[in-house]
Amino acid sequence: MAKKSAIVGEYIITQEDSGSIRVCQIFDNVKGSLREAAAAVGFEYDKDWTTQQFGRKIINEYGDGKTADVGEYTFVRRDSGSIESYRVHGNTKDVLRTICENVNLPYDNNWTTRQMGSKLIDFIEGK
Q1: Are 50 and 78 within one domain?
Q2: Which helix (H) or strand (E) holds 14?
Q3: Which terminal residue of the chain, N or C, has fewer Cβ atoms less than 10 Å from its own Cβ?
Q4: Are residues 102 and 59 in the same domain?
């Protein structure tokens, strides 16, 4: 369960009931996320592939034709053929710093991930 959460840009920041922080990124630039995931696992691709071609090939290679998990990335092929991509960041504190900088929230490098995540959620929610 989520204790609290906030959405800013492509990011969803969630503080679980346990206090742990999770950051999920829902990409607007799906082709860019496909490139990132391909580079992370050494998947060779043609730069001229469309997003749908690229997504279909990577989902077939690493998944079941509908979904695939490639490192921190998850790709979903919809019935229409469109591709959606998500990333759950493994280095949570690093992505929290990036988000703090994007929303102009000063942070202390000594904050724990839980402190930073909680303060960031409150800041985004106007608390």
Answers
A1: yes
A2: strand 11-16
A3: N
A4: no
3-state secondary structure of 40: helix
Task: Check whether residue 65 and residue 96 sit in a common domain.
Answer: no
Sign of the CA dihedral running 46, 59, 95, 119: positive
For residues 19 and 45, state if they share a domain.
no
In tens, the pLDDT along 65-118 reads 999 999 999 999 999 999 999 999 989 999 999 999 999 999 999 999 999 999
Contact 89, 12 (CB under 8 A): no
Q: Are 61 and 70 in contact (CB under 8 A)?
A: no
Sheet with 21-26: strands ordered across? 2-8, 11-16, 21-26, 83-88, 73-77, 67-70
Q: Which two tokens stand for residue 108?
A: 């202390």
CA 89, CA 68: separation in Å to the nearest integer? Answer: 16
Q: How many domains does the chain have?
A: 2
